[in-house]
Prior knowledge:
Shape: globular
Strand content: 5-15%
Number of strands: 11
Largest sheet: 7 strands, mixed
Radius of gyration: 24 Å
Strand order of the largest sheet: 1-7-6-5-4-2-3
CATH class of the domain at 100-345: Alpha Beta
CATH architecture of the domain at 100-345: 3-Layer(aba) Sandwich
Helix content: 40-55%
CATH superfamily of the domain at 100-345: Type I PLP-dependent aspartate aminotransferase-like (Major domain)
CATH topology of the domain at 100-345: Aspartate Aminotransferase, domain 2
Order of helices and strands: HHHHEHHEHEHEHEEHEHHEEHEEH
Number of helices: 14
Amino acid sequence: MDNQEFKYWLEKAAAWSAQYRETIAEQPVRSQVNPGDISQQLAPSPPESAHSMTDIFNDFKDIIPAGMTHWQHPRFFAYFPSNAAPPAVVAELLATAMGAQCMLWQTSPSATELEVKMIDWLRQAVGLPDTFQGVLQDTASSATLCAVLTMRELALNFDGNASGLFGQPTLRVYASEHTHSSIDKAMWIAGLGQANLVKVASDTQFAMQPDKLEEAIISDLDQGHVPAGVVICVGGTSIGATDHVRDICTVAQRYNLYTHVDAAWAGSAMICPEYRYLWAGIELADSMVFNPHKWLGAPMECSAHFVKEPAKLVKTLAIQPEYLKTYGQDGIINFSEWGIQLGRRFRALKLWFLIRAYGLEGLRERIRNHVTWSELMAAKLNAEPDFEVVTAPVLSLFTFRYAPANNNDLDALNLALVNAINDGGILYLTQSTHAGKLVIRFQAGHFDMQESDIQLAFEAIVDCAKKLV
Length: 469
């Protein structure tokens, strides 16, 4: 493909993308294909000779979109959003066209220096003190793994990487019973083991109980275990469970434990000062993470990982063979030493475009609308006969349940309701479990949704429910 063809196909792709976004609300939110429908349309073996771009692009249009769930649909209310605001999509195209591998300062100084600046913009935007520095990881799961590895190395006096874990004392990490599964997986990958993630009981508001945390720490010390750290939840995935950051950090500091705050979804809302009560005491934490690729509008992957003492993170993760050293430059940052990956994408460019295109006030308006509209939906469902709100809105997330009095198997009924709603295509929801029963999650967060989408969703939920009885 020469440059003229490259330009032509970029224009074709741009035109298709704009049309896709313009008409996306007319499509079913969740893909309606059956398992195997897409693979049956794909060649069983790679081609020996080249295909024309015309054929390739036509096959893309004919095959791929039908098998996509439309995360940019305004009535995507299922998982936390994966927004991709148009200015940030343009930035992604530019970053992809440059094709840089941004592992070191010298491999692309602009990428590193823009990342330093964008992390500081985010720090200011969410009200973190200037004691924090940070890095853009791919996802919150990676940031949490980095935090758990740092806990491990600090507890072992940085001997884990050098000597391995054989013969080392048993390390314990503490988290809420409502914590995300990525913390469990981090324990696996870090070699600490599922059994050594201590799930601390929560109170009636679903927050980790500080006194129960302290009891668990003391019990482990009495048994000869080594407490290593605490993962604090702010805006849990299932119901928005949120720990009291200040209280948990205070307990952790008494025992010199590293604290990491997982605010993957909820952290974006902290650009609005009125929501910062949810993480009061955040300045006491050692590290925290939130995902601009969820609620702020940055396309995947873009996870902001803040640390109070970067030296601890770098000592845990940095490897410097000769071919990765930079000579003759002082005071530079090589972000590959701050994470799991050596190779790194140019993630900061989309944040630069995004924040400048909307401004913080434009982004705040969207988040405030989502919170208000989610509260409106909760009130409408709660007022509807046979519906109940199970967990009240935390920011823009709540759970509800269809509970007609004459039904003896409400779990099966609500699962059938979720399936019927999603098969209908007007909106997309997902189920969870809470207090031993199946509930339906509702989370408003699509970047360009409107209040009218709430009314359409409400009507579809009620209509589907009435058809089940």
